[in-house]
Specification:
Elements (H helix, E strand, L loop, with lengths): L3 E3 L2 E4 L2 E9 L3 E9 L5 E10 L3 E2 L2 E2 L2 H19 L5 E6 L5 E10 L9 H12 L7 E13 L2 E4 L9 E12 H13 L3 E7 H9 L2 H6 L1 E6 L4 E7 L2 E8 L3 H12 L3 H11 L12 E3 L10 E3 H25 L10 E4 L8 H9 L3 E3 L6 E2 L1 H5 L4 H16 L21
Helix pairs in contact: 4-11, 6-7, 6-8, 8-9
């Protein structure tokens, strides 16, 4: 294979190779994508490893997490037949938060015509955010401009006005906690080209332009955290993270059924449901391998009730947050679920009951390639990281890795 290198992206036969890495609570996943000149993404390889050093989306054991990342990287390299030297990294955790901000700039030219310099100045003002000293900006995503009160302006250059405003969505997190996964990857002699919020990366993988325009809530149900993002009128309007995920369901089952955590996890996989199945209400399941209490049985209806209550509470917390933001009525395309939790039986039914909206399981419909990456909702984040990388490469084709510095982005990557 003839290979050349452009910055940190491998190029093969005029196509770029871009890698997305998700260091999750239950698994580490690496996706390798080939990106053509028209920005079309083709997934050519996946690598996975069970995650042992991560809790609630954040690293708690560097040595274990490093070994798991290395194993996933090696598998991805073998499947895709490439050498991985850099990655786009997904970041998450309860410390990550999203909020909206507005920048204002007076137009001072004599003829009041808005120039490119005016646009840069108003965006710069929107970036002047008063964050806690230990926080760093991950994304500054442009939404819409306003000119003299006129809403919804996409490009104000050349218009006449006395005042220009821009609305942006900001994602930030604690600097040191964002640096931990970056340092881990660097320790494996890999560059981190850039980082992205995992929730926003997932939305890039599964949403088309029509869904973004109509208004869609994307919920990524992970093992350690649940992340969500709202699109409306083609742009990001709201993001959030809950430090609750599939592991909490397993913990509830272990406590409620009085079984070991590993056994609770297996029961969840074998018999779990997001709603109580009427036929299972009085059914019993034997714990044949319970050496402490031979012949012990559990009630499936009780098990499913415990599981349903935790999942319902999680979805209701998201619904309340979206409601406080005044965005429920803008979700005309409904709700899309992804992440491993989207595989729970009847989860779409429960979500429909909570949100009173159409609900579907998300697929990576905006890319092509390896069938597993396209069909399974748990691969949305690493696939979306490749799309994020493709946007970044188009905007800045000769950049290097970010190393120890978190790049502050001002681009409408997650909008039109």
């Amino acid at each position: 294979m003839i290979e050349t290198w452009l910055g940190n992206e491998q190029t093969v036969n005029d196509s770029q190779i871009i890698v997305g890495l998700e260091i999750g609570t239950s698994k580490v996943c690496v996706a390798v994508g080939e990106v053509g000149e028209n920005q079309a993404v083709n997934i050519i390889g996946l690598g996975q490893a069970k995650s042992r050093g991560v809790r609630k989306g954040e690293i708690i054991d560097v040595a274990l997490a490093e070994e798991d990342v290395r194993n996933a990287i090696v598998e991805a390299e073998q499947v895709a037949d490439v050498e991985i030297r850099s990655v786009f990294l997904g970041v998450t955790g309860s410390h990550v938060r999203g909020f909206n901000n507005t920048g204002v700039h007076p137009v001072v030219s004599a003829d009041r015509e808005i120039t490119g310099a005016d646009i840069q100045d108003v965006i710069k003002n929107a970036k002047a955010i008063n964050l806690p000293t230990d926080h760093s900006v991950v994304h500054v995503i442009r939404q819409h401009f306003r000119v003299d009160g006129q809403d919804g302006v996409l490009n104000p250059e050349g218009m006449l006005g006395a005042k220009i405003e821009v609305d942006v969505h900001v994602v930030s997190g604690r600097y040191n906690r964002l640096q931990n996964p970056i340092r881990l990857v660097n320790g494996l002699h890999l560059e981190v080209d850039n980082i992205s919020s995992s929730a926003l990366a997932s939305s890039l993988a599964i949403l088309g332009m029509e869904q973004k325009e109509l208004g869609t809530l994307v919920i990524d149900l992970g093992a350690g955290v649940t992340e969500y993002a709202v699109y409306s009128a083609g742009v990001i309007k709201h993001t959030g993270v809950l430090a609750v995920g599939g592991d909490h369901v397993s913990n509830d089952l272990a406590y409620g059924l009085k079984v070991p955590l590993a056994r609770a996890e297996q029961i969840k996989i074998d018999h779990g449901s997001a709603v109580i199945d009427p036929e299972a209400r009085d059914r019993k399941v034997g714990l044949s391998d319970d050496s402490l209490i031979p012949g012990r049985q559990i009630n499936l209806g009780h098990m499913q009730k415990i599981m349903s209550m935790r999942l319902q509470e999680t979805l209701e917390l998201i619904a309340k947050d979206i409601g406080r933001a005044g965005l429920i009525e803008y979700l005309r395309a409904g709700v899309i679920l992804c992440g491993g939790g989207a595989r729970i039986p009847h989860i779409t039914r429960l979500a429909r009951d909570v949100f009173k909206l159409p609900v579907a399981v998300g697929r990576a419909s905006t890319v092509s390639g390896v069938k597993n990456a396209l069909d399974e909702p748990e691969f949305a984040t690493p696939v979306g990281l490749i799309k994020f990388g493709a946007f970044q490469a188009k905007a800045s084709p000769r950049r290097g890795g970010i190393g120890r510095v978190i790049r502050r982005q001002v681009a409408a990557l997650f909008g039109r």
